[in-house]
Amino acid sequence: MHHRIVIVGGGTAGISVAARLRRAGQEDVALIEPSALHYYQPLWTLVGAGVVPVGRTRRLESALVPRGVRWIQDAAANLDPDRRVVETAGGARVGYDILVCCPGLELAWDMVPGLAEAMAGPSGSSNYAPELAPKTAELVGRFRGGEVLVCAPGSPIKCPGAPQKSAYLACDIWRRRGILDDVRVTYATGAGGIFGVPEFARVLEGVVERYGINTRFSTELVEVDPEGSKATFETTGPEGTARETLAYDLLLATPPQRAPAFVRDSPLGGEGPFGWVPVDRHHLRHVTYPDVYALGDVCDAPTSKTGAAIRREAPVVVANILAGLSGREPSARYDGYAACPFTTALGKMLLAEFDYSLAPHPTIPLLDTQRERYDMWLLKRYGLPFFYWNVMLRGLG
Q: How much is the pTM?
């Protein structure tokens, strides 16, 4: 089969692009996506806090694929950009004129020995999978005190603020129960600091101090012993790398993440163990194949991998595709806008908005979003999910 535009991936990016293309009058669009369910993943933070049931974060994919788009419910297995063909796991060969690559990323539990086993055990969980986020709420809810390790890799991950959000919400729950003094929380991250934008980092440093969280930066989780409830870290400093093993009673972990194998193993994937698709950071077009665009978590644009970034990337990709189909050079530009809604307590949120310059990029007039606010919590809990399902995925905003 052959289609003028083929989209690989039916997540936030794929559905948003497909909807915008249909609204622009494109009639020959195909979407390759195997999943029957579509998740609004930003709410998994609140699932892990026991605020939202996981069932409220999912809908049927069939209800979201835009009318007139051909849904090929199969997994992409091989990308051949030289022949302009996508091969699926079911054996189909789908030709294209324009390819939009946005399959998201995969959770690389295997990159940390013992991590997957720890997640299956009685003391480990994560908010990065729909089957684990409810477990986080259960473990946090019944915790009585002890050593808590919250871990995040230094390599790119989706919603990079989510690991520390799980720590803040857990601490607030324990504070409300009167046991926070009996809990010792360590937040260990491979990143060099709490956040890359100084204006927001200062607020988050105050949140860390308020809860008494011990932070360890440039500290990467490298191995877990789930039977012994121990985690080993490598800390990189001016004098080199040192290893340290810490015991835990509760482990809240974020796995390393990478492009899916069919992307990493293809000519479209980039070098290194993560395989992010290399694109022009403004036009989002592949650096080698001009008929390929990539956006969302899988591309190497140097911004946070968030739904807010996709909201700004999708119209750029669509505008540039339409320009190319009309014989014009792409001119729409993405400025690196992304947003991280930091839930710092039950009922409080800080909205960090920024762009490639790592300068604050506020979009909500008359509100100081550089401080913790209850109205921002309501935006996170109710406003953003409504906007996602009813506006963004319909190609309206």
A: 0.95
pLDDT 10s per residue in the chain (397 long)? 999 999 999 999 999 999 999 999 999 999 999 999 999 999 999 999 999 999 999 999 999 999 999 999 999 999 999 999 999 999 999 999 999 999 999 999 999 999 999 999 999 999 999 999 999 999 999 999 999 999 999 999 999 999 999 999 999 999 999 999 999 999 999 999 999 999 999 999 999 999 999 999 999 999 999 999 999 999 998 888 999 999 999 999 999 999 999 999 999 999 999 999 999 999 999 999 999 999 999 999 999 999 999 999 999 999 999 999 999 999 999 999 999 999 999 999 999 999 999 999 999 888 888 899 999 999 999 999 999 999 999 999 8
Amino acid (one-letter) located at 131: E
Contacts of 84 (CB under 8 A, 6+ apart): 95, 96, 97, 99, 291
- 171 assigned to active site: no
Residue 285's Cα: distance from chain center in Å? 21
The domains of the chain, with CATH numbers, are 2-105+259-334+389-394 (3.50.50.60), 108-253 (3.50.50.60)
How many whole angstroms separate alpha carbon 74 and alpha carbon 283?
Answer: 28
Q: Residues for the chain: how many in total?
A: 397
- Among candidate residues 151, 159, 171, 299, the one labeled active-site is 159
Residue 340 known to be catalytic:
yes
Measured over the CA atoms of residue 216, residue 351, residue 159 and residue 317, the dihedral's sign is negative
Single-letter amino acid, residue 355: D
- Phi first, then psi, for residue 160 (nearest 5°) are -65, -15
Rounded to an integer, what is the distance from CA 95 to the centroid of its chain?
29
